[in-house]
Write a structure and sequence with these properties.
By secondary structure, the chain is α/β, with parallel strands linked by helices. The chain has helices at 14-19, 46-54, 66-78, 95-109, 125-139, 144-154, 167-172, 178-187, 210-224, 240-253, 266-272; strands at residues 3-7, 23-25, 28-31, 34-37, 60-61, 83-87, 115-119, 158-163, 189-195, 201-208, 232-236, 259-263, 277-282. It is globular and about 55 Å long. It starts with a strand and ends in a 13-residue tail after the last strand.
């Protein structure tokens, strides 16, 4: 059985990651010219991060380089361990080109070792819920093959919906065209977004008004939640009161839902911006977008 590896873009809380025995690649972000690595909330000052962004600072993210990946993987290979890496969506970053280069070099030095990479085709807790359930199966003694078989079916049942407060953050990250960003800002329309079958961003609809947004997200969960044995994650980027209100709306409609509330980390927050609200839950199938990938 391999070491189970994930990255901090899965956003499982640090205490949960430790409970599950996960090895974690910490993903970088930059603020005020200083580099940080997200630690799944262990020592992260979320209030300071979002206050600076709301004050006009523009955070940035950057792909890891091959040396970064080798630093994580080589000690595992040296110890005679194989690796099963459950990654965030490959469609969302060029960092996986560096991973491929690192693995090519490491294969020459450790030909008997292997690293199997599974693309969760999601990010934040859309990836995290997959990592979490795979880790639970691993703790039960399931093989790598059993984990991968489960994930291949499970990934298409993970429903992710989110909306952003300011489209300009998505525009800066290359996730939304300039025209769409400006038009949305002027008209007050906010896209309801999801991850498509390729792991890219797609639009489900456009909503006018924050109150309607909360009710739309609650209705999505109420109508589509089938995996009630799994957690329902409600995440917010520095808009806790609205996230709590959304939780209450969901519980009014689906009181059996096992809701976990969590804040969005700085790496994801750098792209979506303050005021983002998201829901992650298990349904019968991945949401069907109205539009093609927005990248």
């Amino acid at each position: 059985m391999s070491i189970l590896l994930c990255d901090s873009n899965c956003e499982l809380w640090h205490t949960r990651a430790k409970e599950l025995g996960l090895s974690v690649i910490r993903m970088p972000y930059y603020l005020e010219g200083k580099e940080y690595f997200y630690d799944l909330g262990e020592q992260t000052d979320f209030a300071a991060f979002y206050a600076k962004v709301r004050g006009g600072e523009i955070p940035k993210t950057q792909a890891l380089n091959p040396e970064d990946y080798k630093e994580v993987l080589e000690p595992m290979f040296e110890a005679g361990e194989d690796v099963l890496y459950l990654s965030f969506s490959h469609a969302m970053s060029g960092t996986f080109q560096s991973l491929s280069l690192a693995l090519r070099e490491l294969k020459e030095r450790y030909p008997a070792r292997k690293c199997t990479v599974f693309d969760t085709k999601s990010i934040s807790l859309g990836a995290g819920i997959q990592v979490e359930q795979a880790a639970i199966l691993k703790q039960q003694g399931k093989s790598d093959e059993a984990l991968l078989a489960f994930l291949k079916e499970f990934t298409d049942r993970v429903a992710v919906y989110f909306t952003v407060d300011d489209l300009m953050h998505l525009k800066r990250g290359g996730r939304c065209s300039g025209i769409a960003a400006v038009a949305g800002t002027i008209l007050g329309l906010k896209p309801l977004l999801t991850f498509n079958e390729k792991g890219g961003l797609s639009v489900i609809g456009k909503i006018s008004g924050r109150k309607k947004t909360l009710h739309t997200l609650a209705d999505r969960i109420a109508q589509e939640l089938t995996g009630t044995e799994y957690p329902v994650y409600i995440v917010d980027a520095d808009c806790k009161e609205e996230g709590d209100r959304l939780r209450d709306l969901v519980l009014e409609k689906r009181p059996e839902a096992k809701i976990v509330r969590q804040i969005v980390g700085p790496v994801i927050g750098a792209h979506c911006g303050p005021g983002t609200l998201g829901v992650i839950f298990v349904s019968d199938k991945r949401p069907i977008p109205l539009e093609k990938e927005e990248k």
